[in-house]
Amino acid sequence: MQANDLLQLAEQFGSPLYVYDAEKIQSQYNRLTKAFSKVPNLRINYAMKALSNVAILQLLRDMGSGLDTVSIQEVLLGLHAGYSPEKIFYTPNGVSLEEIEEVHALGVQINIDNLSILEQFGAKHPHVPVCIRINPHVMAGGNANISVGHIDSKFGISVHQLPHLVRIVENTNMNIVGIHMHTGSDILDIEVFLYAAEILFDAAKNFKNLEFLDFGSGFKVPYKKDDIATDIDELGKKLSKRFNAFCTEYGKDLTLIFEPGKFLVSEAGFFLAKVNVVKQTTSTVFAGIDSGFNHLIRPMLYGSSHFIENISNPKGKERFYSVVGYICETDTFATNRRIAEIKEGDILSFRNAGAYCFSMSSNYNSRYKPAEVLWMNGQGYLIRAHEKFEDLLQNQIPLPVDVAATV
Ligand SMILES: Cc1ncc(COP(=O)(O)O)c(C=O)c1O
Prior knowledge:
Strand content: 15-25%
CATH topology of the largest domain: TIM Barrel
Radius of gyration: 23 Å
Function: Specifically catalyzes the decarboxylation of meso-diaminopimelate (meso-DAP) to L-lysine.
Largest sheet: 9 strands, mixed
Distance between the termini: 57 Å
Number of helices: 13
Structural class: alpha/beta
Cofactor: pyridoxal 5'-phosphate
Number of strands: 18
CATH class of the largest domain: Alpha Beta
CATH superfamily of the largest domain: Alanine racemase
CATH architecture of the largest domain: Alpha-Beta Barrel
Helix content: 25-40%
Bound molecules: pyridoxal-5'-phosphate
EC number: 4.1.1.20
Pathway: Amino-acid biosynthesis; L-lysine biosynthesis via DAP pathway; L-lysine from DL-2,6-diaminopimelate: step 1/1
Protein name: Diaminopimelate decarboxylase
């Protein structure tokens, strides 16, 4: 997408605005499937927590993707978007047995990540095809909040608990059809990934009825020019070879599954916001935008650094700015960042705004959530309207006047 297209969309739909480039999502999907083309049975389950707009789900469905979900509400959205239950995986963490049973009743593949629920589910539902999330205890991931496979992590069943796990499976006659791991996001070193994969292969030998191995995700995408990214082609070459060899050893062509979020949608997304005020202080120049961490929380939550361009003045002389939001707390998107000269009213474009941006947005400070637009075949399609005052009131129930008066 060109800066001009983005500027025109900001004029047409207003700001703040999320824009997603359909072509980029398609090309990322193709890159991944091509990298693993030597694996006879490959399946991509899009981790919809990254961006769950129904139009995006439909787009990925039409590319052939399945879905990775973490809540029954995500499952329902996936079904609503036209995915058949067999195309949906459910990988929750710390949810109730009741929710897992409800999802199972919808015909969706469940993935269990703790021994307590495994035992309870197995005792009530023997023979149901179940996947198990293993924690391989590998330290991966670019940030403490997204490193989920290490020894202190709450995710998965420790690989050291395999004997206990196998005993539960045998005692309850469970049918384990898959095993899964997800070590964290932003994996830089593919050797770490391959090391964790070996642990999964080893664990797999304990189960005789497997149909698939799910390697989770964690592919690092670039955030700026020359940034490091997971080398998908190299990973594809090495892991495909090892996976195919394992299938021969296991005596069956298993399906290899990935569940990427960021890799598919991060770079396809742009967040557009208007500069409300340029404020010079004794130490810095702030560009204050018509948004805040209520719309894009990743810089405050993870310290993520989104590349910011002034698309109203792309060729302007560069100066240093701190870009901040309007929330009544520290609300910083970027500090001391070199950006083409900013005037009040200019539109700033934040890159890598496809994954974990809108989906983490909130109404904090009683602000409306922004609209979302899908850019396809040279045209912008509104896929979520900007919120209105009625949206803030929806589901709120005022106290009856006579009760309120009794306080
Ligand atoms: C179990 C699981 N699978 C897949 C993903 C997607 O990861 P990413 O967006 O890094 O591809 C996550 C992210 O949190 C996850 O927890």
